[in-house]
Design goal:
Number of strands: 9
Number of domains: 3
Helix content: 55-70%
Distance between the termini: 34 Å
Strand order of the largest sheet: 4-6-7-9-8
Largest sheet: 5 strands, mixed
Radius of gyration: 34 Å
Amino acid sequence: MMERTRRFAFLRLGVPDVRVRTLVALRWLGIAGQLATLGVVGGLLGFPLPWGPALAAIGASAMLNAGLLTLYPRNARLAGREALLHLAFDLVQLGVLVFLTGGLANPFALLLLVPTTVAATLLSARATISVVLLAVLILVAQWRWALPLPWGGSDFQLPETYRLGILIAEALGMGFLAAYAWRISHEGRRHALALAATQGALEREAKMSALGALAAAAAHELGGPLGTITLVARDLAEAIGDDPEFGDDIRLLNQETKRSRDILADLARRAEGEDPFPTLALAALLREVAQPYEPQRRIAIEATPDAAPIRLQRSPELLHGLANLVGNAARHAATQVTLHAALDGPDLVVAVTDDGPGFPAGLLPELGEPFLGPSRSGSGGTGLGIFIATTLLERTGGQIAFSNAPEGGAKVEIRWRRTHIERNDDQGR
């Protein structure tokens, strides 16, 4: 189930969506700006403008906005082709206004950058490229066929070479801004999804801890009624235990009540032993982390004498982060995974190594980033597990470094300041 959720999140990275209300608000802002510009240029400054066609273009945008407010629910969202078509309409509508008022000679032609930048923050990479190509075609139309710039009594014309320079400058600006905006928004969406997965992992750890407390509470609450049943069953056994008709049933009742008391006592012991925040010696904590993966690979625990007795807080972040790294090493190891702990000056260092093929050299600088993709991760995964481990261990104050061991295999080194990570029994409770 978790793997399917990860794949679904990864696929959604390429198909972001946007609220209809967001598009409507942006379009109303554009309409207000266009009307204000026409009012100042044509009304206050007195430049001759093609009022009819210009107002028709603005009216078309206003009608589309009104239609969206009517046809879509308040919290409706647009994704993929629908969002692309709406942003393409905004680009064409603005291009028509610029076309009617001088094309590239119009200083407001610079505003053609806006729809492409907005598209880059809302659309997938393929859709953003489509919008940029449409914008370049509109720029070419402005350069070749736009109406003259309204200029009062004289005919004002910029040299064709200069207008070509404006076209190239705007096209380059569109490409750069779109690429930059898409990259930033993509990174934001990717990290938001990965952090949500990290939070989900912590919530699962918290639920497992809560189950222990629930088991203890259940054992305590059920102990009273079960004690009463035991006493009644014992009295019945003493009174009619030799009865040929009911004796066997009464003996069975006694056996089952005793078995139930043993089960409740065992549950209570387990729950009391699974306090989510005790301290453990480093060697014992590493053994606990490694135990679930030992059936897959042989896992060696190596701790220097000065590091082994250091006590750490048994926090969900530390356990889950280390478990992710050990699980990843176990999947790729040939025969063995090694957990090595040692002190390095004021630092505590834990290294997780395996004897597998190691990390792809080109991937090392990007490890710790989420959603690398199967082709980039080299293992068919998305890199989300390593990202979760990195995020959780950094919350404990650790610094993570990825490398390949000289003798072969992958190596992940986690380094903490000993004064930051070490806990005594009083601190851990």
